[in-house]
Amino acid sequence: MTRFTIQPIHTDFAAEVFDIDLSKKQSSADINLVKEAFWKYAVLVFPDQKLSLDQHVEFTTLFGPIEMNVNTYQEEVKKHRFDYRVSDISNLDEEDNILAENSRKRMSGLANRLWHTDSIFRHKPALASALYALTVVPIGGKTEFTDTRAAWDALPDITKNKIDKLIVEHSIFHSRAKIGFTNFTEKEKAALPPSRQVLVRNIPESHRKALYIASHAMRIIGMSDHEGVALLGELMAHATQPQFIYSHRWRVGDLVIWDNRCTMHRGTDYDEKRFKRDMRRATVSDIGNTVELAS
After folding, report:
1. Cα 91 from Cα 1, distance rounded (Å)
2. Cα–Cα distance between 135 and 107 in angstroms, integer?
3. What pLDDT, in 10s, does the model give residues 235-273?
4. Which of 14, 20, 124, 250 could be 136's S-S partner, Cβ–Cβ 3.0 to 4.6 Å?
5. pTM above 0.90, yes or no
6. Which residues of 217-256 are buried (b: 16+ CB within 10 A; e: fewer)?
7. First vs last C-alpha separation in the chain
8. Are 127 and 285 in contact (CB under 8 A)?
């Protein structure tokens, strides 16, 4: 019999799941209930977890295959603090010291404070991400999530008809350039060429549509750069209005999993030269490239 509780934070966006221990094997019935909640709320918060790396990964694989963190675009970031199954979302080096101000890993991590969805810049993007908090900061450092399904619903019909079949080109180097980080080698750029994804996604489990955008978006195929950038800016501003946002204040032991297909997220500022922040993210691959799936 299921004994955990799902408490919505908003009516149909973000929920907390209490009285469940993710370090233990879950029953098929409980897994199905967690998945149903995930498809409905898109962001689930599991407080007070005590997970090994293997347990973190095992839970995440309930939603699909792990996206191995091997195709990094920075040679120095290959010095992993964990292993290739997870991404290091911290301000720490491999000796657990706070990163130097001129660290390329630090500079790249600052771009996580822009609104984005994970791996949209890869040919096969991410479906879900599960971020686990080992060390949190006392001030700042929240993660904000925005519901791009609700953002789509709130668009006027004339805009929906205009954008429904559009395709967008994304690059991780585009988002890094926005914060002034452009020092990449040709080898690094070749490791992650631009990808093309649909601008509007159909989410099969919820039967809802969602805007599929991010700070990595460079251009809209078939539009002039000026027109495409303007439209992307308008959609980003629309989708990140306060009524669509859930802001999560981290506690040690929180595991938060979100649906990259219908959310964007960003980290908020904290004193990263003073406080250690240590998190790891396991990411689940989507079933394919969105343009190929749509066609």
Report:
1. 41
2. 20
3. 999 999 999 999 999 999 999 999 999 999 999 999 999
4. 250
5. yes
6. bbbbeeeeeeebeebbeebbebbbeeebbbebebeeebbb
7. 42
8. yes
